[in-house]
Amino acid sequence: MIKMDIMKIIQIIMLIVVIAFIIFLFRKERALKKVRRISYYALEPLEDTSLSFNERVINNYLSFVKNNRKFINKTIFLKRLSKNYEKFIKYKNRDKIKNSDFITHKIVIAFAVLFLNFMAQVFGFRSFNILSLIASFIIGFYVLDIGLLIYSKRENKRLSTDLLRAVIIMNNAFKAGKSTLQALKIAADELPEPISDEFKKMYLDMKYGLSVDTVFDRFAKRVGIDEAVYLSSSLTILNKTGGNIVEVFSSIEKTLFDRRKLDEELKNVVAAPKMVVRILFVIPIIFTIMIYILNPDYFNPLLHHPLGFIIIFIIIIMFIIYGTLLNKILKVEV
Fold first, then answer.
1. Do residue 276 and residue 295 come from a single domain?
2. Angle at 333 between CA 328 and CA 334, to 5 degrees
3. Burial letters for 119-136: b for 16+ Cβ neighbours within 10 Å, e otherwise?
4. Domains identified in the chain, total number
5. Is the same domain home to 189 and 289?
6. Are residues 219 and 199 in the same domain?
7. Does the pTM of the predicted model rise above 0.70?
8. Is residue 177 part of a domain?
9. Residues 292 and 320 grouped into a single domain
10. Kind and range of the H or E element at 268?
11. Which domain does 12 fall in, by range?
């Protein structure tokens, strides 16, 4: 009874807070409408107040993120963690965005997910589950990492596609008698993003006095694609043993072109096995859904008995093993 009373009090308080926030937004919107009406008949002040409410919220949030940089940099663990996000900062945003900003975003998202879970427990008439709150905070903390991982994979595909063009441009620049620094500048100006952004970073590194092999080694570690590693290794060998850079880049250009041709042929070869894997993987799921639609009570013994949950767990494990073996059997070895 005492727990229920406490829950009701918390629910009432949270409901009052939500209603008060809605009223505040409503009054804010009405005030902005009145300001827009009066602005037709009033002189504009010297201070710029043309920003909308959303823009002000965004600016306040960005200033909050900026103010937290000192705290993040003072914490040793968070400072080390923030170094992993350096590769996601674009060249044009290097003065606006810092590594520590990503940690602040992660913490804000984690608290937002935690708050949503807390509200769901309050208004769902459920008792508080501390483990659920901790799990929601951890999940929220890594949501940004998942988004950045998906983004980096998509960008790396574009980098792999455009790297051959970059090598061709640099090779032509070397044939015209340009230096490595000038070749990097030409490639950065000619190529589209994201490869141009990486070449601008390399150009900046060389201007700061880093050697060619160090610059390309940093580039290979940032992007993590095989073509970049091959390019970096070739230039490292060239710097240590000496040789004609035009011949080396011509060899790299031919190798990357042959690799691209082989990749295209490989895609055509593995297209049919991949389709077979997808069909065989989806068939059990579709079959289960069809049974549930035709007879919803068919799975009730599994869902309302302790032994049923064990059987469901075994089925999931067997399905994972089935998908893994299917992928291994139909995989085309290169």
1. yes
2. 155
3. eebbeeeeeeeeeebeeb
4. 3
5. no
6. yes
7. no
8. yes
9. yes
10. helix 245-294
11. 1-39
- Distances 331 to 97, 183, 242, 298, 317 between C-alpha atoms, Å: 42, 41, 42, 36, 21
Nearest Cα to Cα of residue 100 among 63, 146, 65: 65
If asked whether residues 161 and 231 sit together in one domain, one would say yes
Residues 181 and 238 in one domain: yes
CB 173 within 8 A of CB 186: yes
Count H helices and E strands in the chain, helices first: 13, 0
CA dist., res. 139 & res. 145, Å (int) = 10
In a domain, 79, yes or no: no
Handedness of CA 244, 208, 219, 166 (dihedral sign): negative
Any domain includes 60: no
Q: What angle do CA 264, 268, 272 make, to 5 degrees?
A: 150
One-letter identity of residue 73 = N
Question: Residue 166: which CATH number?
Answer: 1.20.81
Tens digits of pLDDT across the chain (334 residues): 554 566 667 667 777 777 887 887 777 777 777 777 776 666 555 555 566 667 777 888 888 888 888 888 888 888 888 888 887 887 777 778 888 889 899 999 999 888 888 877 777 655 667 887 888 888 888 888 888 888 888 887 888 778 888 888 888 888 888 888 888 888 888 888 888 888 888 888 888 888 888 888 888 888 878 888 888 888 778 777 777 778 888 888 888 888 888 877 877 777 777 777 778 778 888 888 888 788 877 877 777 777 877 888 888 888 888 878 877 776 655 5
- Peptide bond preceding 306 in cis form (omega within 30 of 0): no
Same domain for 223 and 283: no
Measure the CA–CA gap between 139 and 116, rounded to whole angstroms.
Answer: 12
The angle, 0 to 180 degrees and rounded to 10, between the axes of the packed helices 245-294 and 130-175 is 150
Q: Are 100 and 69 in contact (CB under 8 A)?
A: yes
Residues 166 and 257 in one domain: yes
Looking at the domain assignment, is residue 192 inside a domain? yes
